[in-house]
Write a structure and sequence with these properties.
heterodimer, A: mainly beta, 6-stranded mixed beta sheet, B: mainly beta, 11 strands
Chain lengths: ~110, ~120
């Protein structure tokens, strides 16, 4: 069974601080890994997408890393802002043609406090 | 235009009602998806349309009926729903369902409450 595990489930940080979210996956064969940000009651918005050969990718204050050998990814948020409060979802896709499924993690809920 | 739009934003319906959710994209994407998301859970895939044809039905009950009138529009017809069907319904699209590198763009969702 393909699985994507995220940790922590939730975290609270002070505005201006940094934080790192973790994603471990057992999806195989692996195609790509995406991080989405989802505000409450809204659809997910893509932050980064990385393929097997990419180790790191940045999008503003968000930096994702990928270790395909250990099947781990992290999302680092730098200098957090109140607007960063959201759920962050790790999504992994299979490297199989005609397979439309994405494996979603349960998400990490981040709360940024002033 | 890089948006996926969904209407309505909120919907409250009784178990005997018939209603429809609508999704629209004008990015030229040929794959469109319906997901169901319960609170604090990841989205669950319901249906996939590829080139306007239903290609995946994840064993969804027949009280949910998808329709793809054209390449830009995706509907989800609802009839005789149960309270446990209350959830956020997300629509997504991607350039080509077959290519797994293509990113899925999500709409803002419709918050459905079944009384």
């Amino acid at each position: 069974k393909n699985q994507v595990e995220q940790s922590p489930q939730s975290l609270i940080i002070l505005e201006g601080k940094n934080c790192t979210l973790q994603c471990n996956y057992t999806v195989s064969p692996f195609s790509n890994l995406r991080w989405y940000k989802q505000d409450t009651g809204r659809g997910p918005v893509s932050l980064t997408i990385m393929t097997f050969s990419e180790n790191t990718k940045s999008n503003g204050r968000y930096t994702a890393t990928l270790d395909a050998d250990t099947k781990q990814s992290s999302l680092h948020i730098t200098a957090s802002q109140l607007s960063d409060s959201a759920s962050y979802i790790c999504v992994v896709s299979l490297e199989r043609s005609n397979d439309y499924k994405l494996s979603f993690g349960a998400g990490t809920t981040v709360t940024v406090r002033a | 235009d890089t948006e996926v739009t969904q209407t309505p934003k909120h919907l409250v319906m009784g178990m005997t009602n018939k209603k429809s959710l609508k999704c629209e994209q004008h990015m030229g994407h040929r794959a469109m998806y319906w997901y169901k998301q319960k609170a604090k859970k990841p989205p669950e895939l319901m249906f996939v349309y590829s080139y306007e044809k239903l290609s995946i039905n994840e064993s969804v009950p027949s009280r949910f009926s998808p329709e793809c009138p054209n390449s830009s529009l995706l509907n989800l017809h609802l009839h005789a729903l149960q309270p446990e069907d209350s959830a956020l319904y997300l629509c997504a699209s991607s350039q080509d369902a077959v290519s797994l590198v293509d990113e899925q763009f999500f709409g803002p969702g419709t918050r459905l409450t079944v009384l």
